[in-house]
């Protein structure tokens, strides 16, 4: 056992929840952003502007989601170059064979392939052959063996959540909004979770609401401490910046979480806000306005499919209220109450 531990330490193979559940998962979301998500945005702009060149760029970028995710995971695991580049084929196969649950299949398979690739890397005189062969063979073989069932399972879980949200929009609106919103602020990836589960539709709309509540909520309620820089960095960046302050005083998390519990059911029950764009957008909130762009691309797709006649003023009002106005007002209101009773003190929300 000691020899195995020493070998893993030498090869930088660290089996831990943080390495796989935080570092790898977060990197996977970045890979998704740099392929599928940005590609979808560019493609939508091209479609709306009638520019075929932009449509083609977006299509090519989106097609590289699997390789981008796998390479990002390999980078997070500090894989050697030959392992990292070999993960391109692994990511493509895992995402393709994983179907709707492709991102989750890529996460699992890329981690295994990367770690095994690292294990053999630089251990032979023909490393240029051995390392890529092992990484690709293990990754693609696992893709054939387990990517379809992983994809099916992830898709089933996502379908259950979406079905439950349609059946019980009030309760599930609260649960999905709060849980995904909390995941966005935690050092894990809400975007990757939504992508892995294929979370779209009404449940996707609730997820958007929860993420916006955290980002806009923290940005507004901490304005007195962080001013405009904090407003921008949290409002269109990430509420994860507050994680250190949350550790010191968990009560500062109450206002945006309460806001999420309110805006989630408003999204599902009143405005019927749906996310029918890329599932990863459901977990992005106001980060680069990706959540809102995702909702809009979903509207456009629904119109093209004939399931929606037009984008109405009611749609826009709902999107603006749920994503910006209500999170700001509610979090500010609850935050002031907690400041008055002493649960939040001066500089508890200051970013350093």
Comma- or semicolon-separated keywords:
single chain; 352 residues; mainly alpha; 2 domains
How are the SSEs placed, and which strands pair?
Blueprint: H1 2-10, H2 17-49, H3 52-63, H4 65-76, H5 81-98, H6 102-120, H7 127-167, H8 169-185, H9 190-197, H10 201-221, H11 223-235, H12 243-248, H13 254-270, H14 290-305, H15 313-340
Helix pairs in contact: 2-3, 2-4, 2-9, 2-14, 4-5, 4-6, 5-6, 5-7, 6-7, 6-9, 7-8, 7-10, 8-9, 8-10, 8-13, 10-11, 10-13, 10-15, 13-15
Describe the structure.
The structure is a single chain. With 352 residues, the chain is mainly alpha-helical. The chain has two domains: 2-155, no CATH class; 168-340, no CATH class. 77% of the residues lie in helices and 0% in strands. The protein has 15 helices and no strands. The chain has helices at residues 2-10, 17-49, 52-63, 65-76, 81-98, 102-120, 127-167, 169-185, 190-197, 201-221, 223-235, 243-248, 254-270, 290-305, 313-340. The radius of gyration is 21 Å and the shape is globular. It starts with a helix and ends in a 12-residue tail after the last helix. 53% of the residues are buried. The mean pLDDT is 91.
Gap between N and C termini? 43 Å
Q: How many domains, as an integer?
A: 2
Largest sheet: none
Rounded radius of gyration (Å): 21 Å
